[in-house]
């Protein structure tokens, strides 16, 4: 899909202000700062830019360092009110915490097949790329407004630790992360609970991840509580996260610089691969975006058959992709339906009421001009980890293996180079890596430390009132500085 709807979209040039609208048809327009703090639009939709700024040509002049390229590539999205020097300071602080000088190094694993290592951040998953920037943006905007927010979120794994690492010690933010007691891995729990900053609060809920999510939703729906505590969210529908993730697509392409490439992206909530789409719409030439899922294959289904029906979530060895409703897919649908928000509202209502909807064949075909959906089962994931290890000596994590396997299945050498996104460090999922390869990955030093540190978290039941009382008593909002 090279620009199927460009007739409806005024393409702007660098330096102009971009505004944002909801995917559900409300005609209210807001600026970048408000999308940052709001998250979800009032009509239940997601924010998207009214215009696609054209920044692709810039990839030829991306010369590094990563933090500078990131500020240049993000600036067209970031309104007139965050200037480039502030933005550069934010990206510099964000990427200084990464453990590799290239930030996102490329490694060749086969003829024309590359891995983009996105796991050198503080919590070893690609989520650090966006959340580290998000933390800096929140702090900047809140300081300017003299405001304070209380971030609440639920995590089944990587998001919680990345959000905590991004917010620790920030004076205008208190953050409460809920995880299901006994249901996240040891590594994932310790990455959250070993952080001893006073604005960080971990709560283990006696229940499942769904219970945690329901509690978070209930807190956001309680308008009095929401306003009183200035609740904010950092989940993957936050537009600023998408923008931060577009950067590594441009940077990786500029480093290889030989014709249009393809990317294979292990996918759950469609945030990461949607960022690739945004990079393309803003000018980056791409051959294909391979949407790689595990057995929870609703996205592979919709991209092959048009059917988007959510079933039960199956637990897999790639927990960060165990998702049946991919929130960010709504943003792609908005473009596939010629930016007609009424059409999107209708389909989202059908999803809620009936459990799904079907996309018409001509719109599926439009999507297929750019996207290939591929589902990879657990046996294939394990054998791909083993194969990559045997052929290159590299250990890859199971999420990464899903993308690599999908690239090998759907892409041939004649299709040009392909970059598979390595979304987590193998040491985050040591048991699966060992099961596949017989080798246990070595933990980077800071992870090894977290694995022996003291932990701090509280255990609460599935009780909304008790949780709200807990948060009220601990947030520093309203001048209650401790
Ligand atoms: C979150 C996550 C994914 C999925 O990313 P989405 O943006 O939700 O599609 C894949 N791999 C890892 C390791 C993750 O943490």
In short:
With 482 residues, this protein is α/β, with parallel strands linked by helices. The protein is 43% helix and 15% strand. It contains 19 helices and 15 strands.
Structural overview:
With 482 residues, the chain is α/β, with parallel strands linked by helices. It has a domain at 106-121 and 241-437: Rossmann fold (3-Layer(aba) Sandwich), CATH 3.40.50. The protein is 43% helix and 15% strand. The protein contains 19 helices and 15 strands. The protein has a 6-stranded mixed β-sheet, with helices on both faces. Strand 5 (149-154), helix 5 and strand 6 form a beta-alpha-beta unit. It starts with 19 loop residues before the first strand and ends in an 8-residue tail after the last helix. Pyridoxal-5'-phosphate (PLP) binds next to helix 10.
Name its key features.
single chain, 482 residues, alpha/beta, Rossmann fold, 6-stranded mixed sheet, 5-stranded parallel sheet, 19 helices, 15% strand, disordered N terminus, binds pyridoxal-5'-phosphate
Task: Report the CATH topology name of the domain at 106-121 and 241-437.
Answer: Rossmann fold
The pLDDT mean sits at 91
* Helix amount: 40-55%
* C-alpha Rg (nearest Å): 21 Å
User: In total, how many beta strands?
Assistant: 15
**What coarse outline follows from CA principal-axis ratios?**
globular
Strand portion, in percent?
Answer: 5-15%
Distance between the termini: 54 Å
Query: SS-based structural class?
Result: alpha/beta
Low-pLDDT stretches are 1-15
Ligands and ions found: pyridoxal-5'-phosphate
Lateral strand order in the biggest sheet: 3-4-14-9-10-13
Task: Please describe the biggest sheet, giving its number of strands, its sense, and whether it closes into a barrel.
Answer: 6 strands, mixed
What top-tier CATH class of the domain at 106-121 and 241-437 fits best? Alpha Beta
CATH architecture identity of the domain at 106-121 and 241-437: 3-Layer(aba) Sandwich
User: What is the tally of helical segments?
Assistant: 19
């Amino acid at each position: 899909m090279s620009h199927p709807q460009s007739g409806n979209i005024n393409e702007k040039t660098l330096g102009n202000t971009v505004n944002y609208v909801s995917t559900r048809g409300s005609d209210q327009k807001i600026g970048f700062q408000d999308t940052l703090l709001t998250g979800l639009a009032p009509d239940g939709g997601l924010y998207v830019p009214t215009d696609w700024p054209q920044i692709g040509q810039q990839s030829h002049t991306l010369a590094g360092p990563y933090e500078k390229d990131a500020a240049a590539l993000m600036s067209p999205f970031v309104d007139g009110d965050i200037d480039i020097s502030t933005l550069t300071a934010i990206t510099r602080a964000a990427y200084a915490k990464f453990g590799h000088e290239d930030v996102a190094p490329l490694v060749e694993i086969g003829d024309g097949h590359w891995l983009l290592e996105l796991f050198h951040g503080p919590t070893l998953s690609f989520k650090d790329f966006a959340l580290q920037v998000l933390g800096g943006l929140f702090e900047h905007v809140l300081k300017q407004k003299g405001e304070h927010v209380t971030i609440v979120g639920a995590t089944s794994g990587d998001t919680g630790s990345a959000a905590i690492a991004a917010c620790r010690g920030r004076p205008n933010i208190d953050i409460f992360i809920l995880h299901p007691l006994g249901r996240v891995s040891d590594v994932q729990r310790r990455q959250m609970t070993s952080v001893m900053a006073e604005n960080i609060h971990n709560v283990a809920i006696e229940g499942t991840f769904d219970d945690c999510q329901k509690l978070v939703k209930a807190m956001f729906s309680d308008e009095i509580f929401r306003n009183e505590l200035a609740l904010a969210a950092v989940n993957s529908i936050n537009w600023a996260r998408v923008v931060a993730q577009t950067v590594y697509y441009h940077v990786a392409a500029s480093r290889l610089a030989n014709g249009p490439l393809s990317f294979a992206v292990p996918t759950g909530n469609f945030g990461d691969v949607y960022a690739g789409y945004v990079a393309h719409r803003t000018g980056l030439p791409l051959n294909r975006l391979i949407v790689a899922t595990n057995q929870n294959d609703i996205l592979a289904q919709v991209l092959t058959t048009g059917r988007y029906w959510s079933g039960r979530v199956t637990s897999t060895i790639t927990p960060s992709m165990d998702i049946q409703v991919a929130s960010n897919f709504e943003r792609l649908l908005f473009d596939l339906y010629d930016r007609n928000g009424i059409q999107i509202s209708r389909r989202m209502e059908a999803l809620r009421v009936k459990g799904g909807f079907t996309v018409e064949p001509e719109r599926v075909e439009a999507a297929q001009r750019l996207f290939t959906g591929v589902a990879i089962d657990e046996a294939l994931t394990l054998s791909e980890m083993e194969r990559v290890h045997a052929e290159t000596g590299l250990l890859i994590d199971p999420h990464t293996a899903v993308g690599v396997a999908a690239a090998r299945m759907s892409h041939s050498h004649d299709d040009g180079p392909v970059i598979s996104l390595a979304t987590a460090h193998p040491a985050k999922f040591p048991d699966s890596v060992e099961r596949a390869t017989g080798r246990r990955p070595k933990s980077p030093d800071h992870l090894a430390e977290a694995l022996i540190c003291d932990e701090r978290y509280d255990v609460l039941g599935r009780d909304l009132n008790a949780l709200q009382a807990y948060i009220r008593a601990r947030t520093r909002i309203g001048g209650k500085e401790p």
